[in-house]
Design a protein that fits this description.
single chain, alpha/beta, Rossmann fold, 2 domains, five-stranded parallel sheet, disordered N terminus
Length: 442
């Protein structure tokens, strides 16, 4: 129910947040929303978790995590502290803070897909009330909060910055990184008005060790894009350098390791089979799309994107070349892909380049299998489908494949055993630094 209260809600909401009497609503219980929900629950807040996936909600309410690096014990402890998950978005009226952590993928034309954000905010608009703060954490282009959320949040007559508050605070989760937790990663916060920023700082300041305020939601949105474009561009550079070095007979990993000894002016980035995860392969295109509205063509960003997107095909070309040298064809060959998560030591499959490698191999007629200790069964994905389970790695199993393609360098792999038994290994991660007859760098 929406309505006018007159006057400002700032002191009342801030007091509730500081006293931990506020109810925190988290929308989207994936790799971003789930850790944030746990953090607030274990601090003593009443947490309502919302997701459209009823199976996920039931698992969480039963104390089971669907994310590998989050223990069931952590879910159970949060539940015991009062966390409750639901598919009923009408309960948004119970929350004092509504934090949106939903996906922002690209569509088939590589344009921003805000459908999850828009459907979520549209679902909660009928239940907004005075004294709430709405915060978007999903990565998006500068202007999204103002252009898409603001008119919806204020559509019932609530005064922004006085009765209801709007914030953008980009997520910075790094799944599987043991060096950082949700509370130790600094949090950038931008508000639509100074009062919105004040509320946002208090909201996150209770749960995060360091808050980094910026002057607007646009600045916060651009900050997230810059962080990930910085990485995408540098990875694109080193991927291109890898191809040049390979043609010249130079080991790019040796070169990077040597360059990294310089104590200033150089940051080491390492090549791979392509970009994975929800951020780096996607975020640059949010900015390139928005820049067109201003008559700008972001050539540097788009070029790095082209290079990075070409890496799975480069890896497959190495497979083809290696088989040809052994008088074999890719069609009909048995190929084992090692590691299908997007990065090492996690179960996160979002935008994994390994899957594209698998599809290219399958489309060329190869008999494809995979092994990944973190992904026992190939999951349901929006754009990819394989009816496969992880292959147990034994000397006999490894020797039975014509090619082993190393795409994700999990620590659990026995690399010595694999090297000793594989007919040929296409190494896209630089795991094998010592040259061998059956090792091909890719």
């Amino acid at each position: 129910m929406q309505g006018q209260t007159g006057g400002t809600e700032v002191p009342r909401l801030i007091e509730k947040l500081k006293a931990r009497d506020a109810v925190i609503g988290i929308f989207g219980l994936g790799y971003v929303g789930q850790p944030l929900a746990l953090r607030y629950a274990l601090l003593g807040y009443k947490v309502l978790g919302f997701d459209i996936d009823a199976e996920k909600v039931d698992q969480l309410n039963a104390g089971h995590s669907h994310i590998e690096h989050i223990d069931d014990a952590d879910i159970a402890a949060a539940n015991a502290a009062g966390m409750e998950c639901s598919t009923d978005f009408s309960r948004a009226s119970e929350a004092d803070a509504l934090i949106l952590c939903v996906p922002t993928p690209l569509n088939k034309y590589r344009e921003p897909d805000l459908s999850y954000v828009i459907s979520t905010i549209d679902s909660v608009v009928p239940y907004l009330r005075a004294g709430q703060v709405v915060s978007l954490e999903s990565t998006t282009y500068p202007g999204t909060t103002e252009e898409e959320l603001l008119p919806r949040v204020t559509s019932g007559g609530l005064a922004i910055g006085e009765e209801i508050f709007l914030v953008y605070s980009p997520e910075r989760e790094d799944p599987g990184n043991a060096n950082f937790t949700t509370n130790t990663i600094p949090k950038v916060v931008g508000g639509h008005t100074p009062a919105c920023l004040e509320v946002g700082r208090v909201l996150y300041g209770q749960a995060i060790d360091r808050i980094v305020p910026v002057t607007s939601t646009k600045a916060a949105e651009m900050t997230k894009l810059l962080e990930n474009i910085h990485r995408a561009v540098n990875i694109g550079l080193v991927n291109e350098m890898k191809i040049v070095a390979d043609r010249m007979g130079i080991d790019i990993f040796e070169v990077i390791d040597a360059a990294a000894t310089k104590p200033f002016g150089f940051t080491a980035y390492y090549p791979g089979p392509g970009l994975g995860g929800h951020c780096i392969p996607i975020d640059p295109f949010y900015l390139t799309w928005k820049a067109r509205e201003y008559g700008l063509h972001t050539r540097f960003i788009e070029l790095s994107g082209e290079i990075n997107r070409a890496m799975p095909e480069y890896v497959v070309s190495k497979v083809v070349k290696s088989l040809n040298e052994r008088r074999k064809s890719l069609m009909g060959s048995k190929v084992l892909v090692l590691g299908i998560a997007y990065k090492k030591n996690v179960d996160d499959m979002r935008e994994s380049p390994s899957v594209e490698v698998m599809e290219l191999l399958r489309n060329a007629g190869a008999e494809v299998a995979y092994s990944d200790p973190h992904v026992p069964i190939f999951p349901k994905m929006r754009e990819h489908k394989f009816d496969l389970s992880s292959v147990a790695l034994t000397p006999e199993a490894v020797a039975g494949f014509d090619v082993v393609v190393l795409t994700t360098d999990h620590a659990k792999f026995d690399y010595d055993m694999i090297r000793a038994n594989a007919q040929v290994i296409i190494d896209s991660r630089g795991v094998y630094r010592i040259p061998a007859k059956n090792i091909v760098k890719a």
